[in-house]
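Morning, I've got a small favour to ask if you have a moment. I owe you a coffee for this, so here goes:

…
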Amino acid sequence: MTETGWYWGKSPNSITSGGATNIKYALELRTDGLLLAREIMVTLNGWSDYVFAKNYQLKSLTEVEKFIKENNHLPDVPSEKEVKEKGINLGNMDALLLQKIEELTLYIIELEKRIKELENK
């Protein structure tokens, strides 16, 4: 959506039923059905780069496996029950999924080092 694009929602002084207006004042959009958009912009206060910091405490794969067996989902990721009850924040979920991808990357790097060690023996 452009800054002056179409939207449905509330403005500071009224409820807008749709139309071209200044998006800076759009506060809310609710639907009980499909929402179709070409793009969605989400602003966040942080991102997942902290995973690559030297002091990041990456769980061992044994810890992750134990958590999965006990909880049926990944650590830090909401359960299916939580998602059904509360929904998800798209921006936060994207950041969380990136965190998990970055953690997987660290595991793969470590596994590659172990494989090379074994090959050199």
